[in-house]
Structures are given as structure tokens and as C-alpha cells.
């Protein structure tokens, strides 16, 4: 279930680095907006559809990229961690890495669960993009948000609930059709990052692919 063979798109000439990329849900959104995407994760990602480095995302060089995205592990902040164990068993990787981004001078995006201490420049939900899922995620950006408006959430009765028995349907509803069920558990819909990319490109006087 791999998507390594993708439709060729004319890139906008900008390079995107996706740290803690997982199987590439958010990477795909940036790709669809026209970015030349490179992913980094400390675990193998056999279905990741773009150039990939299995290495430490915490220290990977940021030089040469026009935009850096990071989805640091959310266990330290997520409510589900408190239900299943202790948040103290998971370090806060977000706060010190944000400081690194701020010192780099490279435009950046950080994504995480809504409980994370991020400034909600963009708070996105699947229903805002016509998807039959909820999956709220918050994005903090170096440019502070703004741009075009999107509709508010609409959590209607037909939304798919995240339940292990329905994982395949949930993954497909997110637009993560190339992933396995397990890979999709922590994935974020490509529609979210496509939206973020569109806002960034507008600030640059460019348009999405």
C-alpha cells in the first residue's frame, strides 16, 4: 500500500522540510501545494512518498529549506496519555525546538494536539474541509496566522469516529489512502497542511500548484 509513484507536479521552487513526518500525511498537503518535500523521522517509514531521512529530527540541519514543519510527539500534552499512564514519562520536545526554530531565521510551522502550549494561529478540523472526520489540530507559525477565512467546524452526526474497528475507513476519509491502518493512527489530513501552505505562499506573493 505504497504511494511512491505520484503524479508529477510542477514545483513552486520552494523546499519544505517535514520533521517527525511519520508516513507523510502533512507532507502530502505541502506537496500538493507545489513544495519539494523532504521528510525526517527517527523510525522507518516504508510508505513515505517523498525523499526521506531516518535520523534524529531534533538536530537535523535546517539550512537550505524555505519552510520547516514539525509535528513533535504529542504524548506529553495529549489527554489520552493521562488516561493511559503519566505525561511525565514523555518529555516536552516542543518548547525547546520552537526556540531553535525562532533562532534559525527560517519560516516555520509547528503542529500538535489542541492541549499543546501553542499559539492557535490556525485551529483546523476535518469538517472545515468537507471531510467526514473531526480530528482537531492546532498550528503555530512564524508569521502568526491570518489570511483567508474558512468555515467553522460542523460536527454533524455522519462524522466517522476514530475506533480501531473502523481504522481503514478513517484513514481513507482523512485522504491518507497510501498508509496502513497503523500508520494512519497518528496521521493528520493533507488538507490541513495544504491550507497552511496556501497561506504561506500568499504571503510570498505566490500561488499553490
TrEMBL record:
Name it. DNA cytosine methyltransferase
Q: Name one GO molecular function term.
A: methyltransferase activity
Transferase listed as a keyword: yes
Keywords tagged on the record? Methyltransferase, Transferase
Would the keyword Transferase turn up in this protein's UniProt record?
yes
Which domain of life does the protein's organism represent? Bacteria
Q: Which organism is it from?
A: Streptomyces cylindrosporus
The record's InterPro entries line, in alphabetical order, gives:
SAM-dependent_MTases_sf
GO BP of this protein = methylation
